[in-house]
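Field reference: "sequence" (input) and "structure" (output). Example, Small CPxCG-related zinc finger protein:
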Amino acid sequence: MDDDVDEHGLPPAPECPECGNPMEPESFKGDERLQIAYVCPVHGVGWTFDPFVS
């Protein structure tokens, strides 16, 4: 497996800017479309984005 992707084929998760823990991607329905949130296990949601909008 390529070192630049995880077991799901995704790039490594970003680190939480507050504590440095790796953030986990979670999907949810927002504004009638799929959204992805990066979540820190300690500090919660760091940011969200729409993977279908460039």
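Strands lie at 24-30, 33-40, 44-49.
The radius of gyration is 12 Å.
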